[in-house]
């Protein structure tokens, strides 16, 4: 049955001899994280035969911790999507309801855990790509603070926004995996000392007594009623455990989706430039000069959503438009970060529905990219502000999982792990 | 005066430079790969995921490259910012592993510097607009199908069947030094480049012998001569109004002078014939000494610069104070004149490279600075130059050369033998001076041996003695020659002369 879900792009086992905290655990790795000797496609035809000669830092850490890697999980092409339907290797189906999408872009990773194909999984989160599929598949997913986990070996989509993050059935197990992958890396200049000897797992003690939870009204207002209902029930449950909730306002988040897409697409246009047919993708045999050859290789190797984002990103960075789009988006990003900083003066964590909607049916959302981008409204502000966030199952609506998102201040992973573990109670 | 002659007189040449220099660091600017190319290295062997631009690989800044850049900034008297950061310059080219280059844009490591140099005896100063760090791309070869080695099949792009890419050079730290359009002649450019290279070598961050270590792009335009102000400056409007060409592919000082001389006269010819100069990029063909249009009718390139988020900004506020630079050539020349009493020419020769200057100072420390100057500046550098060698080639043999100067200073051998025999064999056969002297029997003969030779010569040549006494001048010289022969040239001709006279006049 799980084969029908199309969870893996490449199903191959990499055993580890090491004895560590993950000995005996199986882990699915998103297919944009480099694995030495094991092809890494990013869900793209461009890389369907690319085999990295090196391991990503997180893969090295998995191996050192004794984990067994069971395959490379399907994803939206280069992480560009929120349903895992833009993969060149076909859509992944939601294990909860195979007629529905698993979310994305790390849909294969979330589905692997939800379907029991792997004990744990690694995904990547650029604008919600861990939290979104965690919510849709009913598992736990963490987007760490920017700089907590090394990106060395993660094939970049939008490098100023993204982080590698864990999936697990429970908060404690997700935190355990985060403990393994977190911490500074000499190969990634944006990593910090934080996380070096972290113990996030032991923060999963469910103790929220006295915790102040802020609820940004802007992140609840537009959501589906059924989602809001489940979310509010979970909040009441946390209040019952001694937490205090209060409404807060994040005025800037209304601009977050636009700012996010301008920045992500701009960075993508540059990050994906190297895929030009010289070393990746189909090459040679084209007529014309090398610019024409590059164009042909990219036309054939990239899917529609990737082309759309590369074109828009190129446009946003162009002379004459740079100030109007890219620079303005950077200003909005700074504003969003300030808003969060101000909120964390008042509260310990912020809570919202992870996704404002229930998982859509396969094929339903592909026709209207703009509508789909808007479903990222609750997740992208977190990436713009470089903050940590976790999605934890809050309950079900019409038999479908609803995720609750908890956002913490920078390097506040312990706080969000603690609060999320109380949601599980 | 013809109209043509008027045109010719009425325009002045204006030149600005972008000089790319490879910084001599141990490792590349964003990874741990060596920057040192072995002579027989195979393509794409000195690489790693980062300099190959493999998916997922990240740059990590080599602070050694920043240090080298700060040294350049100090030498150019430039401003170093509080914080320096990197941008991406986006363009597609097969030698560029990521199809973007990590470079600097709005916060270059150096801004607003100057460099003084002399041209035809006059001191000139050129303003440096900025100098920034960036990564060198790889290199490409256009090749024709066929058998035979690759070099013989390497051709111009329009005749090639395919192109090969080598990423060994990719990631070598580059510094791009951008001048104001302050040059008024190709010869000024050449003098400036000589001076720049001298300074960079003194800083110990540049190796001119490395292939491709210096690459120059030059902008050249003609402006009406009467638009040049009394202080030599030209208004922005005049500069903007003049169509300029950018000449690329210049790789030497001589080449720069040649390319720009050609380009200036090409533009002059156009103007004289009433034609306009196209604003375009031209390629310097070193073999033909000419520039050729690259025929790229592109509009101005849009590089879509934006911040490189993979490299956090680097705080360099205090670096200028903590990083020391050695005494620079001008200052050292001045000091040599004062401290050692050298003339301008010797001081200049002895400071031509830092290595020569260091060598001289070590010799001058123990011996007469004048004698040391003659030996190093004239004899040693002359003989090295003749052999196409440099002072670095005798690195580690300072003791031996100091010993040679000592032997001359203490009159142990004649200057003539020291120059013509000992020094040459030291260089050709890598011998120590005392060994050459032993082998050649050049030790200055002691007075006893010379005395014996004098007596023998008088005894064996009665005719010459007679001639001497009858006042024939050549006779004494003949006898001196005989004595020299007997002593194997080791006697001092002056003292032999004296001894002979003494004996003959007794």
From TrEMBL, chain A:
Active site positions: 30, 105, 129
Name the Enzyme Commission number(s) assigned to this protein: 6.3.5.7
* Family statement: Belongs to the amidase family. GatA subfamily.
Q: What does this protein do?
A: Allows the formation of correctly charged Gln-tRNA(Gln) through the transamidation of misacylated Glu-tRNA(Gln) in organisms which lack glutaminyl-tRNA synthetase. The reaction takes place in the presence of glutamine and ATP through an activated gamma-phospho-Glu-tRNA(Gln).
**Which molecular function term from Gene Ontology is one that the record holds?**
glutaminyl-tRNA synthase (glutamine-hydrolyzing) activity
Q: Say which enzyme class the record assigns.
A: ligase
> Which species is this UniProt entry from?
Haloprofundus marisrubri
Q: Where is this region: Disordered?
A: 86-110
**What protein name is recorded for this chain?**
Glutamyl-tRNA(Gln) amidotransferase subunit A
Domain of life, per the record?
A: Archaea
Signal sequence bounds: none
Q: Does the record carry Ligase as a key word?
A: yes
The UniProt entry, under Gene3D superfamilies, shows:
Amidase signature (AS) domain (3.90.1300.10)
Keywords from the UniProt entry: ATP-binding, Ligase, Nucleotide-binding, Protein biosynthesis, Transferase
List the catalytic activities from the record: L-glutamyl-tRNA(Gln) + L-glutamine + ATP + H2O = L-glutaminyl-tRNA(Gln) + L-glutamate + ADP + phosphate + H(+)
**GO CC, alphabetical:** glutamyl-tRNA(Gln) amidotransferase complex
User: Per its UniProt record, what NCBIfam families does this chain match?
Assistant: gatA (TIGR00132)
InterPro entries (UniProt xref) = Amidase, Amidase_CS, Amidase_dom, AS_sf, GatA
What does the subunit section of this Swiss-Prot or TrEMBL entry state? Heterotrimer of A, B and C subunits.
What is one process in the GO biological process aspect for this record? translation
- Domain Amidase, first and last residues per copy: 16-416
A UniProt-annotated Pfam family: Amidase
Automatic annotation (TrEMBL), chain B:
Disordered: region residues: 487-506
* SUPFAM superfamilies, alphabetized: GatB/YqeY motif, Glutamine synthetase/guanido kinase
By its UniProt entry, which PROSITE patterns does this protein fall under?
GATB
Q: Which Pfam families match?
A: GatB_N (PF02934), GatB_Yqey (PF02637)
EC assignment: the record states 6.3.5.-
Keywords, sorted A to Z: ATP-binding, Ligase, Nucleotide-binding, Protein biosynthesis, Transferase
Q: Which Gene3D superfamilies match?
A: 1.10.10.410, GatB domain, N-terminal subdomain
Q: Which reaction does it catalyse?
A: L-aspartyl-tRNA(Asn) + L-glutamine + ATP + H2O = L-asparaginyl-tRNA(Asn) + L-glutamate + ADP + phosphate + 2 H(+); L-glutamyl-tRNA(Gln) + L-glutamine + ATP + H2O = L-glutaminyl-tRNA(Gln) + L-glutamate + ADP + phosphate + H(+)
List, alphabetically, the InterPro entries matched.
Asn/Gln-tRNA_amidoTrfase_suB/E (IPR017959), Asn/Gln-tRNA_Trfase_suB/E_cat (IPR006075), Asn/Gln_amidotransferase (IPR018027), Asn/Gln_tRNA_amidoTrase-B-like (IPR003789), GatB (IPR004413), GatB_C_1 (IPR042114), GatB_Yqey_C_2 (IPR023168), Gln-tRNA_amidoTrfase_suB_CS (IPR017958)
The Gene Ontology biological process terms listed for this entry are: glutaminyl-tRNAGln biosynthesis via transamidation; translation
Q: Does the keyword Protein biosynthesis apply?
A: yes
- Top-level division of the source organism's lineage: Archaea
- In this chain the Asn/Gln amidotransferase domain maps to 358-504
Q: Name one GO molecular function term.
A: transferase activity
Q: What does this protein do?
A: Allows the formation of correctly charged Asn-tRNA(Asn) or Gln-tRNA(Gln) through the transamidation of misacylated Asp-tRNA(Asn) or Glu-tRNA(Gln) in organisms which lack either or both of asparaginyl-tRNA or glutaminyl-tRNA synthetases. The reaction takes place in the presence of glutamine and ATP through an activated phospho-Asp-tRNA(Asn) or phospho-Glu-tRNA(Gln).
Instruction: Please give the family membership noted in the entry.
Output: Belongs to the GatB/GatE family. GatB subfamily.
Q: How does it assemble?
A: Heterotrimer of A, B and C subunits.
Q: State what protein this is by name.
A: Aspartyl/glutamyl-tRNA(Asn/Gln) amidotransferase subunit B
What is the species of this protein? Haloprofundus marisrubri
Q: Which gene encodes it?
A: gatB
């Amino acid at each position: 049955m799980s084969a029908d879900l199309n969870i893996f792009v490449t199903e191959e086992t990499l055993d580890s001899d090491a004895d560590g905290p993950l000995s005996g655990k199986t882990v699915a790795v998103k297919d944009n994280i480099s694995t030495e000797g094991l092809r890494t496609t990013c869900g793209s035809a461009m890389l369907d035969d690319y085999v990295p000669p090196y391991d990503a830092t997180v893969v090295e850490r998995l191996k050192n911790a004794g984990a067994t890697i069971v395959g490379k999980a399907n994803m939206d092409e280069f992480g560009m999507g929120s349903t895992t339907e833009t993969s060149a290797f076909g859509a992944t189906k939601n294990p909860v309801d195979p007629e529905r999408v698993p979310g994305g872009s790390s849909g294969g990773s979330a589905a692997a855990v939800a379907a029991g194909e792997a004990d744990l999984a690694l995904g990547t989160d650029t604008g919600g790509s861990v939290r979104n599929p965690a919510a849709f598949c009913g598992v736990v997913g963490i987007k760490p603070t920017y700089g907590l986990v090394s990106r060395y070996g993660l094939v970049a989509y939008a490098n100023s926004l993204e982080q590698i993050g864990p999936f697990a059935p429970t908060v404690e197990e997700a935190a355990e995996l985060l403990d393994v992958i977190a911490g500074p890396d000499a190969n990634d200049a944006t990593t910090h000392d934080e996380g070096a000897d972290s113990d996030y797992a032991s923060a999963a003690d469910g103790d929220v007594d006295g915790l102040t939870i802020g609820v940004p009204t802007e992140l609840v207002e537009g959501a589906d009623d059924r989602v809001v209902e489940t979310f509010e029930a979970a909040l009441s449950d946390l209040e019952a455990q001694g937490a205090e909730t209060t409404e807060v306002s994040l005025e800037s988040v209304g601009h977050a989706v636009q700012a996010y897409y301008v920045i992500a697409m701009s960075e993508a246009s540059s990050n994906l430039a190297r895929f030009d047919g010289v070393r990746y993708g189909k090459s040679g045999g084209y007529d014309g000069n090398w610019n024409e050859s590059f164009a042909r290789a990219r036309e054939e190797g990239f899917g529609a959503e990737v082309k759309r984002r590369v074109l828009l990103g190129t446009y946003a960075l162009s002379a004459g438009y740079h100030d109007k789009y890219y620079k303005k988006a950077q200003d909005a990003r700074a504003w969003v970060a300030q808003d969060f900083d101000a909120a964390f003066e008042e509260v310990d964590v912020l809570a919202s529905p992870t996704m404002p909607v229930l998982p859509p049916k396969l094929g339903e959302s592909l026709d209207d990219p703009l509508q789909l981008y808007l479903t990222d409204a609750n997740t992208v502000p977190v990436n713009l502000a470089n903050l940590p966030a976790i999605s934890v199952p809050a309950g079900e609506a019409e038999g479908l999982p609803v995720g609750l998102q908890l956002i913490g201040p920078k390097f506040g992973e312990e706080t969000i792990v603690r609060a999320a573990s109380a949601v599980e109670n | 005066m013809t109209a043509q002659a008027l045109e010719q007189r009425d325009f002045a040449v204006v030149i600005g430079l972008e000089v790319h220099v490879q910084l001599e660091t141990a490792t590349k600017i964003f990874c741990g790969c060596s920057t040192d190319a072995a002579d027989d290295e195979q393509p794409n062997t000195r690489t790693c995921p980062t300099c190959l631009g493999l998916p997922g690989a990240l740059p990590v800044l080599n602070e050694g490259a920043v240090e080298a850049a700060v040294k350049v900034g100090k030498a150019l008297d430039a401003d170093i910012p509080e914080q320096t950061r990197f941008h991406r310059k986006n363009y597609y080219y097969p030698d560029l592993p990521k199809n973007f280059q990590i470079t600097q844009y709005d916060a270059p490591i150096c801004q607003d510097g100057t460099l003084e140099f002399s041209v035809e005896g006059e001191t000139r100063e050129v303003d440096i607009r900025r100098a920034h760090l960036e990564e060198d791309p790889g290199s490409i070869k256009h090749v024709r199908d066929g058998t035979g080695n690759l070099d013989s099949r390497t051709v111009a792009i329009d005749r090639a069947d395919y192109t090969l890419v080598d990423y060994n050079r990719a990631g070598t730290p580059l510094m791009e030094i951008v001048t104001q359009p302050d040059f008024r002649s190709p010869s000024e450019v050449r003098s400036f480049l000589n001076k720049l290279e001298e300074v960079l070598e003194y800083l110990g961050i540049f190796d001119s012998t490395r292939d491709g270590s210096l690459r120059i792009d030059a902008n050249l335009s003609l402006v009406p001569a009467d638009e040049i102000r009394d202080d030599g400056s030209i208004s922005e409007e005049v500069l903007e109004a003049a169509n300029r060409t950018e000449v690329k592919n210049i790789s030497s000082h001589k080449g720069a002078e040649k390319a720009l001389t050609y380009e200036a006269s090409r533009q002059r010819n156009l103007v004289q014939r009433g034609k306009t100069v196209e604003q375009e990029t031209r390629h310097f063909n070193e073999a033909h000494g000419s520039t050729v249009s690259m025929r790229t009718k592109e509009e101005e390139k849009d590089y879509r610069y934006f911040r490189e988020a993979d490299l956090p900004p680097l705080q360099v506020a205090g670096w200028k104070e903590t990083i020391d630079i050695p005494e620079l050539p001008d200052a050292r020349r001045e000091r040599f004149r004062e401290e050692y009493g050298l003339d301008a020419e010797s001081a200049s020769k002895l400071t031509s490279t830092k290595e020569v200057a260091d060598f001289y100072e070590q010799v001058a420390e123990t011996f007469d600075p004048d004698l040391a100057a003659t030996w190093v500046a004239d004899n040693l550098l002359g003989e090295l130059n003749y052999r196409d060698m440099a002072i670095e080639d005798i690195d580690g043999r300072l003791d031996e050369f100091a010993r040679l100067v000592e032997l001359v200073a203490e009159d142990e051998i004649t200057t003539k033998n020291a120059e013509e025999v000992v020094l040459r064999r030291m260089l050709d056969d890598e011998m120590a001076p005392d060994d050459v002297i032993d082998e050649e029997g050049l030790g200055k003969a002691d007075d006893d041996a010379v005395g014996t030779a004098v007596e023998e010569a008088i005894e064996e040549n009665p005719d010459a003695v007679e001639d001497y006494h009858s006042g024939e001048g050549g006779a004494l010289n003949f006898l001196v020659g005989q004595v020299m022969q007997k002593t194997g040239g080791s006697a001092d001709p002056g003292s032999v002369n004296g001894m002979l006279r003494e004996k003959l006049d007794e």
